[in-house]
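Need a sequence for this fold. Nothing fancy.
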């Protein structure tokens, strides 16, 4: 009971401290399937995340021409069990059956999400090499402004992954592989296209597990549906992340009011009010567009 009262008090103090602040973050729209409302984000400082199958839709290029940043969704940590679309299969080595899988406790046993298998994301793996080459291709192609790396971070969070049962050596291998991946992606973008954006949809610490080196190689993270003004997430949103000058910390809230509250939190750069069920296309922007001076 004391913890509940303490948490409520902390949230109340945060609400009071941010109440007088103006919205400093910009609109984020998730468009994993359809482009409905995508044109509403076609302004400088707007951001869109295109899905695994639709990023070549002309609506995204039209939004970019008007100033929006478009990130391409990819999931280096999980391979679907079945065909999704041709563009998705291209990411997965042009044949999902060829993707090397996580070898522990037995090859291909781990599943981080329903209908998926965990990939062999260990440092220096053939799969990690492929992901780096694929993203390098996106940098050179110039049709997106960056990548949204789903699930890349300290650990998988789905209960299906059974993280708590992993031996420490396996946990360490997963974290080290994720750090190595973003390190290599950062090195390639510094050589090819320094303004290319890298955002991870995960965090880099969980309890006593920390892989904070990963933060220096990315522009920021997405905090997906945190509790309203959760003190831990408020603190995490203020992390510096990479040093290339285009820091991006995204908060995906469950309601418009929550998104507007997160927009006032120091360090948050973009907010969305989409629930998981609404990821097919964005809602109208939850906040107004604010000036950014880092591009």
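Here you go.
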């Amino acid at each position: 009971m004391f913890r509940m009262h303490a948490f409520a008090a902390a949230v109340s103090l945060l609400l009071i401290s941010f109440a007088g602040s103006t919205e400093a973050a910009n609109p984020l729209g998730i468009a994993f399937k359809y482009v409905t409302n995508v044109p509403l984000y076609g302004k400088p400082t707007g951001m869109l995340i295109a899905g695994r199958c639709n990023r070549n839709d002309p609506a995204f290029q039209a939004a970019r021409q008007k100033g929006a940043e478009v990130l391409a969704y990819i999931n280096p940590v999980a391979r679907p069990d079945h065909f999704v679309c041709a563009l998705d299969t291209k990411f997965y080595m042009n044949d999902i059956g060829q993707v090397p899988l996580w070898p522990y406790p037995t090859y291909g046993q781990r599943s981080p999400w329903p209908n998926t298998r965990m990939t062999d994301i260990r440092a220096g793996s053939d799969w990690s090499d492929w992901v780096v080459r694929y993203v390098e291709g996106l940098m050179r192609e110039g049709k997106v402004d960056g990548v949204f790396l789903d699930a890349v971070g300290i650990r998988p969070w789905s209960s299906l992954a059974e993280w708590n049962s992993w031996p420490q050596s396996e946990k360490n291998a997963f974290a080290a592989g994720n750090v190595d991946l973003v390190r290599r992606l950062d090195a390639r973008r510094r050589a090819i296209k320094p303004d290319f954006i890298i955002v991870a949809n995960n965090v880099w610490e969980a309890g006593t597990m920390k892989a904070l080196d990963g933060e220096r190689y990315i522009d920021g993270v997405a905090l997906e549906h945190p509790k309203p003004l959760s003190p831990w997430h408020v603190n995490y949103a203020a992390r510096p992340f990479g040093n290339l000058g285009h820091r991006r910390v995204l908060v995906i809230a469950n309601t418009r009011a929550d998104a507007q509250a997160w927009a006032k939190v120091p360090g948050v750069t973009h907010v969305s009010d989409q629930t998981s069920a609404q990821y097919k296309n964005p809602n109208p922007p939850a906040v107004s567009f604010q000036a950014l001076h880092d591009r």
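For context: Residues 2-278 form a domain with the TIM Barrel fold (CATH 3.20.20).
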